[in-house]
Amino acid sequence: MTQRQQSRTVDLADIFGSVVNQLRNDRNQINVYDQGNNNHGDNALFNFEMVSNLLNGMRGQDAGTQLRQAANVLKQKGRGATANLYSEGLLEAAQRVQGQNGISLESIVPLLQGLLGGVQRQTSAQPGQGTLLDTLLPAIMGYAGARNSGRSNSSAIADALSAALSGSQQTYSQPAQYGNFPQKGMLPRRDPGAASANSLLQGLFQSLSNL
Description:
The chain has helices spanning 3-7, 12-33, 40-56, 63-77, 83-96, 108-121, 133-148, 153-170, 192-208, and strands at residues 9-10, 103-104. By secondary structure, it is mainly alpha-helical.
């Protein structure tokens, strides 16, 4: 890897802009999975549009500062049950990328692990219980493991996205213990939080695929 490649970065505004684009594409289908209010996709898009708009006004600033501000606005104005989860995830991620101008190849793993750690601390759910953790955990840990073993960024991303999709789809067969409980007579459904987490990761990794 050359020094030029090592120094390449992506601004967080571009990362979350890519997340918003993916959520915009997937919003209607995510709403279908929400058997409660049918608005989880709308809420997810609203939340990350708000984050993206904030970050667009902070381009070039320290990544830790950007993420702390994003966490604050999400906590204060976010909609839906996952807003506080992602707020804490962004806050922990901010600590791990403090002092950096943008996200580099070397800071993807700290960013993702911070996001996951913050989310995990805000929920009592465990993997296998049909929540967004069934998407985030295998994808993020899979990416980190692949990179730590020396595999390329593109190869690690491919594995992570495959794990995210598989984990999200498996929530069809897992008992819903959190969020909107399915009512009697309803068909099994993909967890909307797991589906929106899959969209988030797709957008995020798309923006980082050329590092």
